[in-house]
Amino acid sequence: MAMTQKEVQKTYEEDRNSINSKDFIIGALIGGMLGAATALFVAPKAGRDLRNDITEQARVISEKTGKLRQDLTETAREKKNNVTELVTSKSSAIVGKVRSLRAEKAVEELEVEAGESEPAATSEADIASTLEEEVQIKLDEAQQAFDETEKELQS
Predict the structure, then answer these.
(1) Are 15 and 149 in contact (CB under 8 A)?
(2) How far apart are CA 43 and CA 113, in angstroms?
(3) pTM score
């Protein structure tokens, strides 16, 4: 399942927007919880009632925090899997190109031996070097995208 650069960029942008939405939701939840806690301290209540309310709110916050942590972990795993899948598909495509180029080079050499055409100007070493550079660039891009996603999830 090979993805084009545009599809990868679109997926990345959608993921960023999704993360931004999650950041907003997290901020709203935390703000709501702080507002509730402030209301508890300002409202005139007996000490026992206030302590019970604080305990209940602490339990609710703890549950929501656990759920949020779990959601973020799952999102990070999904992102990692997406990047791994992308790198695997790109690597497979590059390996296919290398094999194809080697086959073409072999055919050219046979034709040259038979006197049918002139030798190609590009050597196999040049082709391999170019492909290695392309693979390294794609791997670096994938690593950078993964690092950015991980950094966003940690903040």
Answers:
(1) yes
(2) 95
(3) 0.39
Q: How many CA atoms lie within 13 A of 65 on its CB side?
A: 8
Range in 26-40, 80-94, 123-137 with the lowest mean pLDDT: 123-137
Whether the CA torsion 17, 23, 26, 30 is positive or negative: it is: negative
Q: Residue 140 corresponds to which tokens in the numbers above?
A: 């670096």
End-to-end CA distance of the chain: 32
Q: Which band of pLDDT confidence, cut at 50, 70 and 90, is reported for residue 125? A: low
Kindly list the domain boundaries of the chain, sorted by start residue. 12-154
Virtual CA dihedral for 110, 114, 117, 120, nearest 10 degrees?
30
The DSSP letter of residue 123 is -
